[in-house]
Each structure stands twice: as C-alpha cells, then as structure tokens.
Amino acid sequence: MEPQTVGLDARIAQAxxxxxxxxxxxxxxxWRNRADARRLRAERLRDAHxxxxxxxxxxxxxxxxxxxxxxxxAGLVARMxxxxxxxxxxxxxxxxxIYAAMIPQIDILPRQTIDWIVAFYALLRSVEAMAEDMxxxxxxxxxxxxxxxxxxxxxxxRIRAFGYGQRALKLIEAYARGGPEAAERVLAKVSxxxxxxxxxxxxxxx
Length: 206
Hints:
Blueprint: H1 3-64, H2 69-82, H3 97-102, H4 111-134, H5 137-140, H6 144-187
Helix pairs in contact: 1-6, 2-6, 4-6
C-alpha cells in the first residue's frame, strides 16, 4: 500500500473517531439536559404543591372554625329570622395570593391534582364576589326573606368550597407520597368537580 493511501486512511479513521466522540458528547449532553429539565420540573412541582397545600389548608381552617362554622351560621340565620332588621356582618373574603401568582405557570400542575385545585379557587372567587355584594348597602335594604336566602346560599358555597379544598389536599398529599399512581387511586374514588359531588368532607374524613 502506498504511503499516501495509508495517510489518507489514517485521516479518515481519525475523522470518524472524532465524529463519534462529538456525537457521543451530543447524546450525553442531551441526556443530561433532559435529566436536568425533569429534575427542575419536579422541584417546581413540589414547591408549587407545598405552597398550594398550605394556602388551601389555611382557607379550609378558616371556613371550618374548628367545627363551629355551621353552628355559627345557623345562629346568625336564626337571629335574622327572629329580628327582620338584623343584618349580619360579612367579613371581606380575600384568599389565594399564592394561586394568583402561579396562574401564569399553572401548567406545572399534574393532571391528577389540577382539576380540583382550579375548581377550589374558582369557587373561592365566587364566594369572594358574593361576600362583597353582601357588604354593600343594597343587601341591607333587601326584604328579610331575601337576605336570609342569600346568606344561606353564601354559607352553602363556603361549605362546598371547604369540600373542594379537602379533595385538593388529599390529592396533593397522595401525589407527594406516592406520585401520580397514588393520586390516581384517590382520584378514582371521587367524582369530577365539573360533574359535582355529594356532601363536603370534614377534617379527618376518609
């Protein structure tokens, strides 16, 4: 074999080796980038779930009043019925700053938890709007029966929001402990918030 041919073969071999090294580097870097992206997404999801869990738990605690919420509401309704001039004070409802800040990246939430979380906060917005209406002068001038009916609706919405919150908390907790599969098992036991559901849960209910 002529020296020139040998030299050419050597250069081709070197080029092939260099190309293989570059290709391997691309593959390794691509794998690392994908692994980093998965890790970062998992961290963002954990942080989002932790923050939302704390916020939802706080709202549910406020609505539950250590088990006295329904008794308190029933007492106010009884007073409204006994005294037509009585107008209950309705505190301003302001909830969900963490959720509001997360809306631009809401897609970080997994399918197993997003429906109940979004449904919970959507219902909170309705409760807030109703509370604001009840704080106005027009509510105070309504007929007593109409005021009582609106107040009952307001309490019913809060009870329903509490139930939605309990579902969301269970799903977030299940996802944190066992991933999507664990959340799916919890999800299989409840109806979709779009279709509605039965009585709201109480703390500690299975």
